[in-house]
Amino acid sequence: MISVASHESRSVVFDRASDYYDRTRSLPEAAQRSVTELLAGELRGRSTTLEIGVGTGRIALPLNSAGIPMTGVDLSAPMLARLVAKAGGHAPFPIAIADATALPLADDSAGGAVACHVLHLISPWREAAVELARVVRPGGVILIDLGGWAASDWGAIQERFRNEIGAERPGAKDVSEVDEAMTALGLAVRRLTPIEFTTSFNPETQISDLARGLYSIAWDTPAPERERAAAAVRIWAEGELGDLGADRELPHRIDWRAYDLPAARPSGW
Q1: Among candidate residues 75, 45, 70, the one with its CA nearest the CA of residue 60
Q2: pLDDT tens-digit profile of 208-235?
Q3: Best CA proximity match to 82, nearest among 14, 151, 131, 7
Q4: Which of 5, 107, 131, 179 could form a disulfide with 98 if both were Cys (CB 3.0 to 4.6 A apart)?
Q5: What is the total count of domains within the chain?
Q6: Does 32 map to a domain?
């Protein structure tokens, strides 16, 4: 069962991506296993862990299978429905339609929290950070992967397309911002061991996916403008990369941060 918490959202909602989200965001099996092991090592023994932006369960389902008691919130009912379907038709842990800036959980009700590729989608992302710190009990941990493709050819294509349509991330733009916000809340920052691996990608396929509006950066952009931007990116990419139909190596580096709550809340919380 999916419960619903009423709140006017100022975040990007992924309803339209539910049918293809896993295809465009899934990790290779070995990399997914490494992520699960890394996060489970931080969360084991802390009781319930909350994931904001739980979506289709890409992170939460493997963690739950690894013995980490999970709960999740997301703004998208179709994404949560996909999670339930992947779990065999029944919610494997409590899930709710709710906004990360107004979590329907009591103070100190979770031992840990996870936010993967979500804070860049929330305009008032600092409010979400405050909510996470409120919900996670003293001594707990908040694990965040802001995401991004900056150091790759695919990242360069995406950035070029973003500039062509004049789009910006609505939320956090750099992990240093998140570090500063969490430190200001009294949390200690730890950089977890990076997970590095290589896959391949096809530049023409990725540019076509951008033109089709498969990524949230272009959801507010009309189709003709997306096509114009894609045509401009193709011209640029051919000069930079050569044959756009040829697969290229895509290096990945997944950088998770751990933000440790103090053993006791500071005065004024």
Answers
A1: 70
A2: 999 999 988 899 999 999 999 999 999 9
A3: 14
A4: 5
A5: 1
A6: yes
Give the pLDDT band of residue 169 (cuts 50, 70, 90).
confident
Placement of tokens 């004024």 in the chain: 268
How many whole angstroms from its chain centre is CA 118? 4
Ranges assigned E (strand) in the chain: 2-4, 49-52, 70-74, 95-97, 110-116, 136-145, 188-191, 195-201, 248-254, 257-260
Question: What CATH number is associated with residue 127?
Answer: 3.40.50.150
Is residue 78 over pLDDT 50?
Answer: yes
> Residue 23 CB: number of other CB atoms within 10 A?
9
Other beta carbons less than 10 A from residue 20's beta carbon: 12
Nearest C-alpha neighbor of 38 from the set 198, 191, 199, 250: 191
Give domain status of residue 219, yes or no: no
Establish if 269 belongs to a structural domain. no
Confidence at residue 6, expressed as pLDDT on a 0 to 100 scale:
47
Q: CA dihedral defined by 82, 211, 9, 186, rounded to 10 degrees?
A: 90
Question: Beta-carbon neighbour count of residue 142 at 10 Å?
Answer: 27
Q: Distance between CA atoms of 110 and 133, rounded to whole angstroms?
A: 10
Model pLDDT for residues 3-59, shown as the tens digit of each residue: 555 455 567 788 888 888 888 888 899 999 999 999 999 999 999 999 999 999 999
Q: From CA 54, how far away is CA 64, in angstroms rounded?
A: 12
